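Recap slide: LysE family translocator, sequence and predicted structure.
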Amino acid sequence: MPVSLELWLAFIAAASIMILIPGPTTMMVLGHTMAGGPRTGALSLIGVTLGDVCAIALSMLGFSALLAASAEAFTAMKWIGAVYLVYLGIRLWRAPPMDLTPANTGKSSARDAILQTFLVTLLNPKGILFFAAFLPQFIDPTRPLWPQVAMLTVTMNVLAAGIQGCWIVMMGQARNRIASPRMLKNMNRAGGAMLVGAGMLTATLKRG
């Protein structure tokens, strides 16, 4: 086992608490669920996972040091992510309600959900700095580094998928019970508002 059992259990407890605190990524996943249903919300978790893996890799490779040292780099990433979220929110607000019949749930919406959540997760500079500060606390310096990083990364993403998956199921069930065209339009607007809110939340991030 790359990580000692004690450190691993402590990591699970700490990571679970952090995941339960809603942030821009969680709000985006819920926004996708409200607009496109549980399938779209579940697919968006793929983008979150890929984004987290890349963010952890960047933090371990030293990119976090650049963000910590350079206010300009941090601010640029923060505003790119914030503007992108607001753009997605406005586009979703204005979108027509999705047809829930199987023949009309195309591949393009799946690709969009994955790509959008991947970009938002990766463009969150606070996430890279968080992993750089958080993961080393559970790394044993006497053991090989990358096997430990790999195990903690997998653990983090399994926990995130499980916790966010529960929210997706609950919200998706509520959505499907009231799937009238008018209500779906309102769902789009609620999801769009959540994405705009996530963008505003991203814009308030600070390095320290």
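The two ends are 34 Å apart (CA to CA).
Residues 5-11+25-95+107-203 form one domain.
(End of recap.)
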